[in-house]
Specification:
The chain is α/β, with parallel strands linked by helices and 458 residues long. The chain is built from 15 helices and 13 strands. The chain is elongated, with a radius of gyration of 32 Å.
């Protein structure tokens, strides 16, 4: 078999008979990078590789440009990281790939058997992963599942967002925060384990767009020190196995977000896209057998009524929360957030909802209004609601008309509607309607019946 390191070079520094050796497979891209980054911090290293940072961490909280936009890790060679030795080198000849010429590279970790051998290597790798997944109190990490290499890629680190900045109805926010606080308590964890219940919590956030579903997820991640892991279920390569692997490999202390869950299947379990993922595969993943303890799942949808009940039954969804159009309470709170020294919050909300009439208002539209007035004073924002109303009306006028739907009908009913439309168009094309044709046939039959025998009708 092919040796995954240069035996001659390694033997000069390593007594292979006294060392345990562990190869880090090529598909473990994340672990490889963590090891090489750690090795690159050693003072005696003279071989490096430099690349752009994986995370979009280019600005600090004081809005000053970051000093480093690149990440340094170890290059090719054999390195000492007491008590380990790490080999990073090329294996075999270069070969052609879809991305050009490439060459297999291996990462092998050696550790003296007397100092723990394989157990020490595993403990070191787990320490590196745990450190990488540790939440920064000023930021939270955003991961996205890399389908090709089957690992969670650190996409970015975003500034934390205080829960106070998430403007929801007080009862709605309390419902979510209290539920999560209770779930994460030591007594709740002990209860779940004592009764053999999988220790995880699943939420369904549903309702109108722009009502705060995504913002709430960010606020929860910030408040509870969690990573956020986004799963793109509609990808054409997302299979049952890929989803299972993603759920099992979720970083610790994470919120797994399955956005627009209604885009996969309708309420009759009919597939709505070309992904190979099956409905049963989705259910098995949500059941979370074998997932890490204490994980949180959030599914989002704008159309709760289009979900199959099996998807949101008890055990798969522990708490459903509706995100509806903004209320006067939210308008008051948001005005106070932007103009804390002004006493006009209630007056603003009254002016706004008197002008709205029956128009629905999202918190996203309300926030956009305050952003637009960021250079104006509180009085201007209080009295400028006509600007928001005009914007809402303009957007409503530019939307395409809604498709005709027959609520409660099945697919066969829709097919019948289409057939009736075709028949109507045929009638319009010929200028003859079905009732007129029936009347004509009736008089022809009656004339035949009354005419004397042998009489020609034409």
């Amino acid at each position: 078999s092919t040796c995954m390191f240069d035996a001659e070079a390694v033997k000069k520094a390593v007594d292979l008979s006294a060392y345990a050796q562990c190869e880090i497979p090529a598909e473990e891209c994340k672990l490889r990078q963590l090891i090489l980054t750690r090795v690159g911090k050693e003072s005696q290293v003279r071989s490096f590789q430099v690349k752009l940072r994986d995370e979009e961490d280019e600005e600090e909280e004081d809005w000053q440009p970051a000093e480093r936009r690149t990440q340094v890790s170890a290059g090719l060679g054999l390195f000492d990281v007491e008590p380990f030795k790490v080999w990073y080198g090329a294996v075999g000849a270069p070969c052609g790939t879809d991305c050009g010429v490439d060459q297999l590279r291996s990462v092998v970790v050696f550790c003296p058997i007397a100092k723990g051998g394989l157990d020490a290597i595993r403990a070191w790798c787990e320490e590196l992963v745990e450190e990488a997944e540790k939440s920064d109190p000023r930021r939270f990490s955003i991961y996205r599942w890399h389908l090709r290499h089957r690992y969670w890629n650190l996409d970015s680190r975003a500034p934390v967002r205080p829960l106070e900045s998430i403007v929801l109805p007080a009862t709605t926010k309390a419902k979510i925060v209290d539920d999560l606080t209770e779930f994460l308590s030591p007594s709740t964890k002990a209860f779940y384990l004592r009764h053999g219940i999988p220790y995880r919590r699943s939420y369904l956030f549903y309702g109108s767009p722009g009502a705060g579903k995504s913002s709430t997820i960010v606020g929860l991640a910030s408040a509870f020190g969690r990573n956020v892991c986004y799963l793109q279920l509609c990808d054409e390569h997302m299979s049952d196995d890929a989803l299972r692997d993603a759920i099992h490999a979720v970083p610790s202390r994470s919120i797994v977000v399955l956005e627009d869950i209604d885009s996969l299947f309708d309420k009759h379990r009919t597939k709505k896209n070309n992904t190979p993922l099956t409905f049963s595969g989705l259910l098995n993943a949500l059941d979370g057998i074998g997932t890490a303890s204490g994980q949180l799942f959030v599914m989002t949808t704008n159309e709760r009524h289009n979900l199959d009940e099996a998807l949101v039954r008890h055990g798969r969804v522990d708490l459903s929360v509706e995100f509806a159009a903004a209320l006067p309470e939210q308008a008051t709170t948001m005005f106070r957030n932007f103009y804390p020294d002004s006493p006009d919050a209630h007056r603003f909300a009254t002016n706004l909802f008197d002008a709205l009439g029956q128009r629905p208002l999202s918190t996203a539209a309300l926030q956009a209004y305050f952003v637009a007035f960021r250079h104006r004073d509180a009085a201007a924002a209080r009295d400028g609601v006509a600007t928001l109303i005009a914007d809402l009306d303009e957007r409503a006028a530019s939307r395409p008309p809604p498709k005709r739907t027959n609520l409660g009908s099945n697919d066969d009913d829709e097919d019948c509607d289409e057939e009736e439309d075709v028949e109507a168009s045929d009638e319009a094309a010929t200028g003859i309607t079905l009732p007129l044709m029936a009347t004509a046939f009736f008089f022809i039959a009656l004339r035949r019946l009354l005419a004397p025998a042998g009489t020609s009708l034409y």
